[in-house]
TrEMBL record:
Name the UniProt record assigns to this protein: Uncharacterized protein
InterPro entries: P-loop_NTPase
Native organism: Clonorchis sinensis
Length: 317
């Protein structure tokens, strides 16, 4: 039975089977080399950067026929997946022939005798329409759809990572990612993940800034959860170490902080910020309270609010 189907598939006589249809695929690779003794039946047109193949078979034998054309034509087998993804049925041969013949000197190669009548049709087609726009448009459309889905998945993944690690810059996100996470992201999305990550970080920080500007400080500080727990020091030395660690974790330069605090105390600047500090008296909280002036407000909270944005509403004591 298999041998009978093979003989019918490459029969030199024109097919009379109603189930047979014309198919086409795009091949990008080395030039085809069909032997003179081959039993394959197809025709192909050289479009310079790719080849259009046309063959006839029933839908059940489509994949098998393509595989035999690849073998008998010595086509690049690395293009098999690309070929399979570009296979389309030819609905209207007259319209497709006009797209297939792009220029007057286009080489039309016919392998076997089964499709010689189609080759004759191609030589009779007018040359006004000189591109294969319909076929390539469908291929680009499917490829564009996959690109959009990939972009959406990449955006969702990186947005979740940015929110999970509370990353405010690309460097923070890159340092927070694990070894496997960085490899998985790069392996699936390539170098474009950096651009998407920067976009997600920018949107994330903008959302936080808008929330701070539209909410009252008292409301915002109640809902602002921090991902680090504050430890209560036992003595003065531990308190100093805790305060140094607090400034280091929040990337605050101690010298710059003291300089800015002095400028606020001397009323050299009008900016109203809040520095939230939690801890017993050994941390120096009372000392800072004693140096408190009209433009600096110290809040005794159980959380650290590390945002340095300008507060729209000045808190009241």
């Amino acid at each position: 039975m298999v041998e009978t189907q093979s003989r019918q598939l490459f029969s030199p006589e024109p097919s009379q089977t109603d189930d047979n249809k014309l198919w086409t695929f795009v091949y990008r690779g080395t030039p085809p080399r069909f032997d003179r003794t081959t039993r394959a039946n197809c025709l192909y047109v050289d479009h310079g950067d790719h080849y259009h193949f046309v063959f006839e078979c029933c839908p059940q034998n489509k994949t098998r026929t393509i595989q035999r054309l690849i073998e008998s034509g010595h086509l690049d087998k690395r293009q098999t997946m690309t070929i399979m993804s570009s296979v389309q049925p030819i609905i209207n041969w007259n319209n497709f022939a006009a797209y297939l013949v792009r220029a007057a000197q286009t080489p039309i190669i016919c392998v076997g005798k089964k499709l010689q009548h189609l080759r004759d049709d191609l030589y009779m087609v007018p040359r006004e329409r000189k591109d294969c726009a319909t076929l390539m448009r469908d291929e680009r459309g499917s490829r564009q759809k996959m690109s959009n889905l990939t972009r959406k998945r990449r955006l969702d993944l990186l947005r979740n990572l940015v929110e999970t690690y509370d990353a405010r810059s690309f460097n923070e996100l890159n340092l927070a990612l694990t070894y496997d996470e960085r490899d998985d992201i790069y392996g699936e999305y390539g170098s474009q993940w950096k651009e998407t990550a920067e976009h997600c970080i920018q949107n994330y920080t903008m959302r936080i800034l808008v929330e701070q500007q539209t909410n009252r400080f008292e409301d915002h500080i109640r809902t602002n959860s921090h991902n680090r727990d504050c430890q209560h020091p036992r003595d003065t030395l531990d308190g100093e170490h805790w305060l140094d660690l607090l400034l280091h974790v929040n990337r605050i330069n101690k010298q710059n902080f003291l300089t800015d605090l002095t400028r606020v105390m001397n009323k050299q600047i009008d900016r109203k910020n809040a520095f939230v500090l939690e801890g017993p008296t050994t941390t120096g909280e009372n000392i800072i309270r004693k140096t408190h002036c009209g433009q600096l407000h110290i809040w005794d909270r159980t959380e650290i609010w590390r945002s340095q944005s300008v507060l729209p509403n000045e808190p009241t004591e």
